[in-house]
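Today's session is about reading a structure prediction critically. Students often jump straight to the picture, but the first step is always the sequence itself: look for stretches that repeat, for charged clusters, for runs of hydrophobic residues. Only then move on to the predicted structure, which in these notes is written as discrete structure tokens rather than atom positions. Here is the chain we will use throughout the hour.
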Amino acid sequence: MVRVSRLAAVALATVAVAACGKGDKGPDPKAAAAKYDVAPINAKVPEALKAKLEFVAIPVSDDHGKHEEPPFAIAAVPKGWTPDDIFPSQFNAPDGDDHPGFGDSIHLSLTCQGACEPKDWEAIADKDLFAPNVGNASLKVLKDDKFEGGRLAVISRHDDFSDRDEVQIYSAFWKKGAPRMLWCNVLLKGELSPAADAFEQACRSVQMLTWDP
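Below is the predicted structure for this chain, in token form.
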């Protein structure tokens, strides 16, 4: 399963961010989450999936509060999805008939890609995140959107084992002079693929609390 290995490699590249140190806690995470408007994101969920897929706003940290790491962002994630045991800022769909999309995930991470210092984040994102995926001839690029302070690509891949078309979303966001950049990557294995627009909007709508380590 090369696809899973590729996503795991992306996650492993970002986990070192926790070692970069801690900065200012910024705005109050609970208050920011309470004010976060998930309505535009939920509006993009297809009618056929609305009963089983609802986005909620939560604070996101690299350790999900296990070591008092302050949240770096407020993000919309599907209700009922749980933090990964290894990568706590990755949220996985639960198993069961009431939870479509088992094996799907949304992973948010601040990455230093080495030393936590200002860099040419656009060039780094192009090289480390987009070139291996957008440039992969075995994948179908549905969207590759470059904009000020970020880039987002939506990719489709047919999985022969499940006979389903999977959707992968890769996105990077940065601020000039910031010591880290944000990655938001999504894997939809089939049943939730029609909701790709909602997941894309969730990545685009991440509210940063701090860029600092």
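Discussion point for the tutorial: The chain has one domain: 2-208.
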